[in-house]
Amino acid sequence: MDPKFALQELEKSGKDGLTAHDLIDLKVTGGLTYNDFLILPGYINFPADHVSLETKVTRNIALKAPFLSSPMDTVTETNMAITMALLGGIGILHNNCTADEQAAMVRTVKKFENGFITDPVVLGAQHKIKDVLEIKRKLGFAGIPITDNGKLGGKLIGIVTNRDIGFCEDTNVELSTVMTKEVVTAKLGVTLAEANQILRSSKKGKLPIVDAQGNLVSLVSRSDLLKNRDYPWASKHPQTKQLLVGAAIGTRPADRERLAKLVDAGLDLVVIDSSQGNSSFQIDMIKHIKATYGNKIDVLAGNVVTRDQAANLIAAGADGLRIGMGSGSICITQEVMAVGRPQGTGVYQVSQFARKFGIPTVADGGISNVGHIAKALSLGASCVMMGSLLAGTNEAPGEYFFLDGKRLKKYRGMGSLDAMERNDSDNSGSQARYFSESDKVKVAQGVTGAVVDKGSIKQFVPYLITGLQHSLQDMGVPHLSELWNMVDSGQVRFERRSAAAQIEGGVHDLFSFEKRLYN
Ligand code: IMP
Q1: Which residues bind IMP (predicted)?
Q2: So what's the pLDDT on residue 429?
Q3: Was 486 annotated as part of a binding site?
Q4: How much is the pLDDT for 351?
């Protein structure tokens, strides 16, 4: 045949591979998960770094990178949430703690970086150096304005910085004796650009903003300027410019009070954390949130793996759905409960259904490499949620320890006995996720383990981003937002992978090798 008829011939004989719909054909294949299939290569006519990963996590919350960190007490506290948001994703603070502790975490994230810090930490002249040191230990900064009543809104009388307390050995000394009294300030109404200029020319770290009477109204921080420069993808609230943050709650009556505190602290996204989300408790909670807060916060409901479950939560008012039951690395739900679904099938079925209503989905659990992220997104998820992949990073809670010469961090399921026992006193958090608060015998649905040190997510998440951009480029998909249309129209093609093909697709036939993933 004449080579110039190659394209016509292709048209006649049909495209290679399967559509996503044919891939996830339940009657033929049963449930599938990420390793069971591959995506066939497409046509490249754009560079990888032009691939936009912009997406939505819920109806009203957009992200530049499709990543969430799991609400687990070995994954997401303030440090993880701040850094995830700086890098373009969002962190979901766990609820295996009291409501006040969780609200304090929300507050810390919201305060971390913004143009004007509208709720700065303030002390009075009678406070001691040790109070500043305690704030520094908890929140990581020491530039604190001093007012006559020790509160925001009081008359500004000084400022205490690292320089003022650095050489003082007696931590009981009152701040009145060490604070700097000549403070460079700016008047209320100053623009951020002007405030930044004043900071630059005065070479100060903090610029208190005062009203006409000299009362403190807010603060601008030089380190925020530097951070702003470094994180162009940061997930920020469009008006306040504060970092976005999510937090998990349960479905008990006490969780309504918890949520009120979280919203008061500035929460953007609430995640109703349940291993099986299709319950009257969750539906009531969604309705309560929508009736009480309207569009002030978005609700990520779940978890679900079937369209039937999804339909109930969508009808109740969910703004996004979290998909996964039994796919987590620490999870024994499928083994113990006999209930769950292979993650690939769950993501496809729920996402296809949810898209009809404009509801984004989050593929939660079982993500262990960049390829899994690309596959979850190609099956229809708008974002992925990661636990084990992030648990070994510097930003995850907990200390590193050594075992057999390896540097490790603890990682545990929220349904492990270990996690469920953490809060027997107030019955909050992880027990409720598994409906086991009132059980005499606690049935574990997760394990406790350890993961290898991964360094900082400041290097790891950019690796995930670049890896994902290259993956989409290989598929011939110029932007994440076009991926779903290209999958639906049958342009992006898939293929099942036999057990032998899976072995072939991994490293094989080597005596030894070193697997370094990025530099
Ligand atoms: P990973 O990313 O594979 O480690 O999975 C993390 C996800 O597992 C979380 O986001 C939760 O949805 C889920 N998960 C957390 N703790 C447990 C547990 O104890 N049992 C079952 N699933 C869990």
Answers
A1: 329, 364-366, 387-388, 411-415, 445
A2: 65
A3: no
A4: 98
Residues forming CATH 3.20.20.70 domain(s) in the chain? 48-113+234-492
433 is catalytic: yes
pLDDT of 404 strictly over 70: yes
| Ligand 1 contacts CB of residue 413 (under 6 A) | yes
361 in contact with ligand 1, CB cutoff 6 A: no
- Structure confidence at residue 240 (pLDDT): 85
- Decide whether any atom of ligand 1 lies within 6 Å of the 115 Cβ: no
- Grouping H, G, I as helix, E, B as strand and the rest as coil, residue 453 is coil
User: Which atom, in ligand 1's list, is nearest to the CA of 390?
Assistant: 2
CA–centroid distance, 74 to ligand 1, in Å, is 11
CATH superfamily membership of 48-113+234-492? Aldolase class I (3.20.20.70)
273-288 residue pLDDT tens: 999 999 999 999 999 9
Are residues 107 and 140 in contact, defined by beta-carbon separation less than 8 angstroms?
no
325 is in an annotated binding site: yes
The one catalytic residue in 331, 341, 383, 493 is: 331
- Residue in this structure with the two tokens 């929300």, named with its chain if needed: 106
Superfamily of domain 123-224: CBS-domain (3.10.580.10)
What is the bridge-based pairing of β-strands 320-323 and 400-403? unpaired
**Burial bucket for residue 417 (CB in 10 Å: 0-12, 13-18, 19+):** middle
The Å distance, Cα 313 to ligand 1 centre, comes to 20
Range with the poorest average pLDDT among 22-36, 134-148, 262-276, 428-442: 428-442
List every span in the chain annotated with CATH 3.10.580.10: 123-224
Q: Is 72 in the pocket of ligand 1 (CB under 6 A)?
A: yes
Residue 228: predicted pLDDT: 61
Q: Is 449 annotated as a binding residue?
A: no
Residue 164 is predicted with a pLDDT of 87
d(CA 367, CA 362): 12
**First CA to last CA across the chain, in angstroms?**
48
CA distance 297 to 245: 11
Residue 424 has pLDDT above 60, yes or no: no
What sign has the CA pseudo-torsion 412, 78, 243, 113?
A: negative
274 is in an annotated binding site: yes
